[in-house]
Here is the input.
Amino acid sequence: MINFLHTFNPDPVLIHIGQITIYYYGLFIVLGILSGTFIAIKLSKYYNIKKQDIIDSAFWAIISGIIGARIYHIFLELPYYLEYPLNIFKIWQGGIAIHGGIIGGLIALFIFTKKKKINFLNLIGIYAPALAFAQTIGRWGNYFNQELFGKPTNLPWGIPILSKNKIADYYNFQYFHPTFLYESIGNLIIFIILISIHYLIIKKKIKNNHLPIFIYLIAYSVLRFLTEYIRIDKTPELLGMRLPQIVSIIIVVLITFIYAKNNYFRKTSREKIG
Here is the structure.
């Protein structure tokens, strides 16, 4: 595996069929979506949510998530897209930001649960491990696009980057950190943790259905904060930090506050009843 990463130069194109070009990026995104949906369906039966509701909610969450992810990415690289506005629609070339995807997906799921009268926390809790696993697979699309790689490195798992994909400041370097792999492995670990939490909730009858999504948001934010120290793709900065790091900090603080506040009111309610 290490030798493969160190010597292989990926081609972003999977196959040409006439005038149609299928990219590895799209393949891994689709595989991530399908696997995530499958996981959500398997979990749904333990939370009294119908399979069809998962399929329907997944459709709207995916559409809204992709739109949100693209809008967020465009915002990060606004000067480029103002100069080349037609490239806004070339999503097959890469360029979706997970923070925007999460926001878009959550909005769609919130609206869906209100219409269907489904417990919102149950549904997004089900989607938490599904999303983590989808990211585990989806990050490999970045590898084949040779994008979002990290700083130069001499480590044996450093990946070669073609000259046309290199950033000007690092043009003379050959090997770079496989940031996509770090996130892929990190998301796999998060997935395992979340599935374990669901096991405890289901088998041990622990009534804490909001825990999976809170854990996901905090764990992924920490993972993203750390990997941003390695990434060299251009993004807005503030106070010496990259924008995704700032967003990650905001998410951790906000989720921690919500979780603590929610537990406080639950504890207070139990004491009053007692």
